[in-house]
UniProtKB/TrEMBL annotation:
UniProt feature, compositional bias: Polar residues: 166-185
Coiled-coil region: none
Protein name: Transcription factor MYB12
Listed GO CC annotations: nucleus
MF (Gene Ontology): DNA binding
Spans annotated as Disordered: 164-192
Keywords noted in UniProt: Activator, DNA-binding, Nucleus, Repeat, Transcription, Transcription regulation
Domain Myb-like: 9-61, 62-112
Subcellular location(s) per record: Nucleus
Higher taxonomy: Eukaryota, Viridiplantae, Streptophyta, Embryophyta, Tracheophyta
PANTHER family linked to this entry: TRANSCRIPTION FACTOR MYB8-RELATED-RELATED, TRANSCRIPTION REPRESSOR MYB6-LIKE
PROSITE patterns: HTH_MYB, MYB_LIKE
DNA sequence: AAATGGCGCAACCGCTTCGTT
DNA sequence: TAACGAAGCGGTTGCGCCATT
């Protein structure tokens, strides 16, 4: 038993969109709004998969979409955000009005991946970065790579909440959701704050949350915590985005 | 002028996350 | 709380255009 297809691929138009199809889709969405993509094609008179319609609208037809001519400022921002967020194209696109995740992804893959690599190789080898790298390599089992993964909830005790509000860095041992979405037992008695913050964009997948949590309790880890603080500071400082993070807190 | 290779972009695919019942 | 469908997301593919030979 395979995965159920999102739509019947037989007899459904695929490939490039015609002007007529664009028109039908635009007209329908202008009248009825976005959403209900699955039923949209039939209602709009389109012989397309709903996902295809959504993609076409989001990446091409939506009002306000900028096309081409990525400015130097935008390019710089993309590089910086990518360094912080990784391949979280939708998040990066969210900071670039009028740009789509698909466009940024394509732009990155074609231009910036090489550019960024060469840039990093030049700038990352400063003395500070070298010492950081050295310290990190000495604790290889605790390498924290801020690959972006969304955490929908951040669980903080009251004490840690205070710490969070007064610090540019998140607390070194802030309990967050476990990867499986379950709530750590130890935090159930604490206030649950549903708030956006830096942890929305950080992930401990390289070491697994078990590197930080044990039996659903926060480990008092002396080597994980400072390393995380240092890495977070380094990232925010180098991106000059500390104000942005602070605003989120 | 024709063939070929490289590049850029739009679109597809399948997995994950979210929201509802 | 589980199940299910819808929507979102990121990796990948394939087509068309353009430059080069």
């Amino acid at each position: 038993m395979g995965r159920k297809p999102c739509c019947d691929k037989e007899g459904v138009n695929r490939g490039a969109w015609s002007l007529k199809e664009d028109e039908l889709l635009s007209n329908y969405i202008q009248l009825h709004g976005e959403g209900r993509w699955k039923s949209l094609p039939q209602k709009a008179g389109l012989n397309r998969c709903g996902k295809s319609c959504r993609l076409r609208w989001m990446n091409y037809l939506r009002p306000g979409i900028k096309r081409g001519n990525i400015s130097p400022d935008e390019e710089d921002l993309i590089i910086r955000l990518h360094r912080l967020l990784g391949n979280r194209w939708s998040l990066i696109a969210g900071r670039l009005p009028g740009r789509t995740d698909n466009e940024i992804k394509n732009y990155w893959n074609t231009f910036l991946s090489k550019k960024s690599n060469s840039h990093v190789s030049k700038t990352f080898e400063s003395e500070d970065k070298k010492s950081l790298r050295k310290s990190m390599s000495s604790t290889t089992r605790n390498v924290i790579v801020p690959k972006a993964t969304r955490f929908t909830k951040v669980l903080l005790s009251l004490d840690e909440d205070d710490h969070f509000k007064t610090s540019q860095c998140p607390p070194s041992s802030t309990p967050v959701d476990t990867n499986d979405g379950s709530t750590p037992e130890s935090s159930k008695e604490n206030d649950v704050l549903d708030m956006p913050n830096a942890f929305d964009y950080l992930d401990f997948s390289e070491i697994g949350t078990e590197g930080i949590f044990e039996n659903n309790n926060v480990l008092e880890s002396d080597d994980v915590a400072p390393l995380f603080d240092m890495e977070f500071h380094n990232l925010t400082y180098s991106l000059e985005l500390e104000d942005d993070w602070t605003n989120l807190l």
